[in-house]
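Changelog entry

Holo records now carry the ligand SMILES as an explicit input line rather than a separate metadata file. Below, a converted record for flavin-adenine dinucleotide, shown in the new format.
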Amino acid sequence: MMTGSLTGKIREKGFKGELREDEPLHRHLSLRVGGPTALFAVPDNVQDVLALLGCLEEEGIPWVVMGGGTNLVFGNGGYRGCVLRLGGEFTRVQREDDLTLVAGAAVSLAALVNSSAEKGLSGMECLTGIPGTVGGAVLMNAGTSSGEIANVIDEVLLFDGRESRWVQGSEMGFSYRSSQLPEGHIILAAKFRLTPSTREEVRSRMKTVAARRKESQPAGIPSAGCWFRNPEGDSAGRLIDEAGMKGERCGGAQVSEVHANVLVNVGGATASDFLTLARKVKETVHRHYGVVLQEEVRIIDG
Ligand SMILES: Cc1cc2nc3c(=O)[nH]c(=O)nc-3n(C[C@H](O)[C@H](O)[C@H](O)COP(=O)(O)OP(=O)(O)OC[C@H]3O[C@@H](n4cnc5c(N)ncnc54)[C@H](O)[C@@H]3O)c2cc1C
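Structure line, unchanged by the conversion:
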């Protein structure tokens, strides 16, 4: 367990952002489950990140980055280290030139998609309705069957614990819902190369995407989106549905009746409820089809 002196040491290094001890994680996660993290830190700029990571390294304290917490699961026991969520300067979107937008990692993806529409820039319509931040979307290569964020990424600003540098999108190792971010690195910002269009056309395409999502996704109920990755050439939702798991419950966690690959919190669920339900789903699908489903959500073990 950490003591107040750790926050003192971090402040001594010049950290100006927010620091909270024993912060309940369920407040920050779309699933609304998860125990406390020993330390929750919100660095406002690169100097803060440097000060924080320097101190955590000296003290041998593990850390993990979160964005919007829409694809993350922490256990009932929470996290024994520091959960870091970028804020301040990382929440800005700027236009670099006619076709390029630069967004801090803490910008909400919805704000970025809206900003591109406002400017009549096309390429992000397929991301309409995906919650979370730019950092999480880049790390996860967020997208849908009609496109993914990697398609519009020009460069990504990475921090390696000591310094930051821009790398080409092509160096990020993007594939279906994943990237190859080197261990211990943080995404600070990304540059997006878009194509010229008009505000009306972009808005109209966004509307179509939003309508399609409305039909196929459970709305207004806590979830982390799709729990499992689609197996090559198949759909995890179809397998779970046809294995008869729709509506299956474990405590307050349920396989959505609307979309079988979405596990929802129907009230009072714990992280363990979700992990137990997910294990049951995996076992059932494996028994029926011989397919081993892999998690798309990121599960952080204590
Ligand atoms: C209702 C709902 C619908 C969804 N629909 C979709 C969908 O259609 N398509 C889709 O792809 N996803 C979807 N998702 C999943 C999720 O929204 C995306 O994966 C999203 O991009 C995650 O962003 P986040 O900021 O919330 O990341 P988080 O959940 O906070 O983190 C996800 C991963 O990214 C890492 N990370 C976050 N920020 C950084 C950073 N700055 N630097 C390094 N690593 C970082 C975290 O450590 C973690 O491993 C949905 C989720 C919900 C709740």
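Spot-checked after migration. The radius of gyration is 20 Å. Residues 271-289 form the longest helix (19 residues).
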